[in-house]
Amino acid sequence: MRIDPAFGCSLSLGEGRMRLRLSGPRSFDILKACVAIDWDSPQAKPGSVLQTGFHHVLVLLLRTAADACDILAPHSFAQSLVSWVTDIAAPEIFEVK
Q: Is the whole model's pTM more than 0.85, yes or no?
């Protein structure tokens, strides 16, 4: 990624962070259950980067599209993050009889 130095710089977060990509029509319903962000606000439009707490852990959220978001979180939190998101999404993913 190239960034004009007049606007900022980039920093690699690859060593200490993992990326979880959520996409689809229910992505933000799932995220609304996890983080306190108004996804309809101009500050959260596609292309935005937001920092917030996710279960008391700081994460970066990259809004990549109208129905997609990447979560950058510490590697040490990866398993818990995936489990939590899966549990929230489970009623829509799995049919319970």
A: no
